[in-house]
Amino acid sequence: xxxxxxxxxxxxxxxxxxxxxxxxxxxxxxxxxxxxxxxxxxxxxxxxxxxxxxxxxxxxxxxxxxxxxxxxxxxxxxxxxxxxxxxxxxxxxxxxxxxxxxxxxxxxxxxxxxxxxxxxxxxxxxxxxxxxxxxxxxxxxxxxxxxxxxxxxxxxxxxxxxxxxxxxxxxxxxxxxxxxxxxxxxxxxxxxxxxxxxxxxxxxxxxxxxxxxxxxxxxxxxxxxxxxxxxxxxxxxxxxxxxxxxxxxxxxxxxxxxxxxxxxxxxxxxxxxxxxxxxxx
Length: 281
Prior knowledge:
CATH superfamily of the largest domain: Globins
Order of helices and strands: HHHHHHHEEHEHEHEH
Oligomer: single chain
């Protein structure tokens, strides 16, 4: 244990040098993302992150393994969720983890020669460092992927919301212009979002324009019909416009009837309808 404490102190004293050596030897030409940045603030943050890594990693030789890895999670999460690292290809980040591991193995060699440590003990040190890096890298990749997926999902949700806007007009009327491909997931979102927006905005007449939609499948057509029924239940009258022949054919094949739905060939024609004067149910 005494020898382990010596190694901990030895590496801790090298922490600043490890960071500077690592950054100076960084391939800034072929690297991407955070490693290629010339912004002084980004560089300073990157060096601090690397330095904090060393302060934590050195503890592998003086702490219980379970506590060591638990305490390391805060650093791992901060890097996995760091904007600059999220903009950096994962293979570049892994490359730098492995380069830093090489630094540690070299300094362990130096320590072993300086203190005449037995080869068996050196092997144990190397195994401890390798295991530490393996676990940190695995946890980092796991958290990085998880956070990236959460951000992607949030972006997709925002895109869905922006691509399915309920635009308030006059006299408690609103327009829902649908553009692009509509899959089952988006159709479900449109149904939920439209009902919520109509309720919040006090809409009593919604114009749904489909002129920007080229193709929908039977499941999506069914969802649109469900939307019309749900809007009717909350007292919102609907008018469809811009239905292409392909979409009309799909609804016929599905057996969906728009008998009680107001339909106009164009949005301009739909908007000329007089406002509804009756109160909402």
